[in-house]
Specification:
The structure is a single chain. This protein has one domain. Helix 1 packs across helix 2. It starts with a helix and ends with a helix. The longest helix is centred in the C-terminal third of the chain and has 24 residues. With about 80 residues, it is mostly helical.
């Protein structure tokens, strides 16, 4: 059941991050899940650098942390694509 929650959480976070960054048209549902889950890991890592907790479960704080991580991930991918 835990993996299903991660997939749903990742899909929701990835979809909202792609809407904010305006990449929704070029990103499918599978990519939304990947961006959301990787964004949650990235956001948790960034928060740990500031001495805060990362993703702690299925709650609003974790959602915001994962959303920030997903937005940063999309921004990094955009920057790499432009230079390559």
């Amino acid at each position: 059941m835990n993996i299903i929650l991660w997939i749903l959480f990742g899909a929701l976070v990835g979809w909202i991050a792609s809407m904010i960054m305006r990449t929704n048209a070029s990103q499918g549902p599978l990519m939304d899940i990947v961006v959301g889950v990787v964004g949650a890991v990235l956001g948790g890592w960034v928060m740990s650098l500031f001495g805060q907790a990362g993703v702690t479960g299925f709650n609003l704080y974790s959602f915001v942390v994962a959303l920030i991580g997903a937005i940063v991930l999309i921004a990094i991918v955009r920057a790499v694509r432009r230079t390559a």
